[in-house]
From TrEMBL:
Protein name (Swiss-Prot/TrEMBL): Dehydratase
Sequence similarity: Belongs to the enoyl-CoA hydratase/isomerase family.
Gene3D superfamilies assigned: Hotdog Thioesterase (3.10.129.10)
Ranges of residues in domain MaoC-like: 15-117
Superkingdom, taxonomy of origin: Bacteria
Taxon lineage: Bacteria, Bacillati, Actinomycetota, Actinomycetes, Pseudonocardiales
Originating organism: Actinophytocola xinjiangensis
Amino acid sequence: MIGPDVTAGTELPPTSIRITRADLVRYAGASLDFNPIHWNERVAADVGLPGVVAHGMLTMAVAGRVVTDWLGDPGALVEYGARFVRPVVVPNDEDGALVELTGKVRDVREDGTARVDITAKFDGRAVLGKAVAIVRVPAS
């Protein structure tokens, strides 16, 4: 759990998460999103994508882990939003796609919450824009 000493500028421990084609299958089953761009190379190419891509909401959920892992209590996550700016292309191999995650406390508010800005990158480029989490800071 984050402590009451959280201040603006606090950097969360960076983390990296791999997304594989098997993850896409599991996510499709859980979300009922069976869009073929998430499993069929030909369809992905036909719509102008560079390959099979991860579901946007899966990418967003993976990125949120940098905050929930740091919090130690997923229930302390009050609000989370992001924009999808670039897809995560998932190769058909054992390694999958590496998503690199960082976060930084932007401000701590008088209402006992803090704003955390999240950065999610794939191939060195941002995949989410305006990724912001509002978290509850425990009372001292």
